[in-house]
Amino acid sequence: MRAMVLRAPREPLAPAELPTPQPGPGEVLVRVRACAVCRTDLHVVDGELGEPKLPLVPGHQIVGVVEAAGPGVELPQGARVGIPWLGWTCGECAYCLRGLENLCRRARFVGYHRDGGYAEYAVADARYAFRLPEAYGDLEAAPLLCAGLIGYRCLRMAGDGERLGLYGFGAAAHLIAQVALSQGRRVFAFTRPGDQEAQAFARAVGVHWAGGSDELPPEPLDAAIVLAPVGALVVQALRATGPAGVVVCGGIHMTDIPSFPYRLLWEERVVRSVANLTRQDAVEFLALAPQVPVRVHARPYPLEAANEALAALRGGKVVGSAVLVP
Residue 205: enclosing H or E segment and its boundaries? Predict the structure, then answer.
């Protein structure tokens, strides 16, 4: 099968012909139809997340069709499924038993510990392969599987405040902004300073205000979600929130948060992170998305152009989501 392979961190992905993997007990073999490109892929490729499996096929926002199944799998051949970042959990540790499988100490992640979707085929644990809404084509469904799911978990952790700030208006923000707007919230979008294209995109999605991340919003926020991997934005978000405000850090990797005066945290403001996702997040969001309806802005790239797509994302040139198509 054709695949794009990471041989070593900080090196370009290399095209390769690999044997088609075979599913074991509880697993499915999926023929990949689309795989969205995520900033976490960048963190893996750029060496910011240590100890990935090497060589590695990246990619964890996979849309595909079940080609074969191992023993104990009920998914039928031909079923269209989505495969997200969380690829396996033990089901036995204290976190799993508390409904916090996203924090499982033995968890395995797709496109990091397990080969992912930058290929023609992928093998996945059937427990973490989700039926997809028919309302979305393959290209549009792929970004829902991480940008959508992580954004949804961030939104829940942010609470139900009316005035919501989104720092970094890309793949996740353009999806979750639509959910927040459908709930009657007012959304304030923060982009790289001077990024008029991203601000225009945010306004087209329907946000109430869009400006640079170095600006303060026209009124205090009840909550803010920091989706860009820039620690300084946490401090800026605290400046923008009012008393009892919540700042949620949605990335798996972020630069260091600078020191800041206690007065920015005082008045019961909260800073918290979101780590990974749970199967319940997937069930809830994939049911909710077509009801909103969440509209996905996706740009396709051929599989062999994976390095080009990653470079565009690294340079802030992707409006919406980049999606690889084998």
Answer: helix 196-205
